[in-house]
Design brief:
Strand order of the largest sheet: 1-3-2
Radius of gyration: 20 Å
Oligomer: single chain
Largest sheet: 3 strands, antiparallel
Order of helices and strands: HHHEHEEHHHHHH
Strand content: 5-15%
Helix content: 55-70%
Number of strands: 3
Distance between the termini: 49 Å
Length: about 230
């Protein structure tokens, strides 16, 4: 190991230490930067925190309970772009309620659940506004309208993340889901792939899809406590 590599590893270790900060924005920023450096210089996690560190555990963090189908669509886009896998865990005896589980390394799962929770709050606030607009026009804002908006939102959200990745190849590499996480989830018993949800797409709902796309593309993710409190 040469001197330059030692300096890089030292910097990564300091960033990982900051990732344990109580300040969620600082923690997330430090973790993403550490992941970027590890990808850029092809330094794996075991070399960073000492040879004594063995295989890292895959954990899950759970959100919910929920009943709306659109929750699954939002969760899938976020997990795919932040080094995690998500599955839907049904809850018996609750009238169709379910939880979303984000599987990944601990810091990645924490980032996913924070971004996901914030996105759900943002979408629900938008639904309040859209429902009021529809009511004034004498129309109902129901499942089909929600699904059209969410289809656009997820498309815009995915484009949002892709544009961030294009700014830095190393950043894009740092956000690839680790093979160990994929293997862990694939080996879970009884797990089935998320279904494709059906809804009516027509000209009347095109504006909803466009509105969702704009909102998703402009979405500013955060674990920021002040933003969360203001929603």
């Amino acid at each position: 190991m040469n001197e330059q590599e030692n300096k890089i590893i030292d910097k990564i270790e300091k960033l990982l230490a900051l990732a344990g900060s109580d300040n969620e924005n600082e923690a997330k920023s430090a973790m993403v930067k550490a992941q970027e450096l590890m990808a850029k210089y092809e330094i794996d996690r075991e070399r960073v925190q000492g040879k004594e560190q063995k295989e890292r555990p895959v954990i899950y963090l759970s959100g919910g309970p929920f009943k709306d189908e659109w929750i699954n669509m939002v969760a899938a886009v976020i997990a795919e772009n932040f080094r995690c896998r998500c599955i839907t865990a049904s809850m018996r005896g609750t009238g169709g309620s379910f939880r979303i589980r984000f599987y990944g390394y601990e810091e990645d799962a924490e980032i996913c659940i924070n971004i996901f929770n914030y996105a759900v709050k943002v979408v629900r606030k938008r639904f309040v506004t859209l429902r009021a607009i529809y009511a004034e026009a004498g129309k109902n804002f129901r499942r089909n309208e929600k699904m059209n908006y969410i289809a656009g939102f997820c498309q815009g959200l995915d484009r949002n993340f892709e544009e961030q990745k294009k700014q830095s190849q190393s950043f894009a590499l740092a956000l690839v889901t680790p093979e160990a996480v994929n293997r862990y989830v694939n080996e879970l018993p009884g797990v089935v792939l998320n279904e494709t949800f059906k809804y009516e797409r027509n000209r009347e709902n095109a504006l909803l899809r466009r509105t969702g796309y704009v909102d998703g593309k402009a979405f500013q993710n955060a674990g920021d406590k002040e933003k969360l409190a203001g929603i």
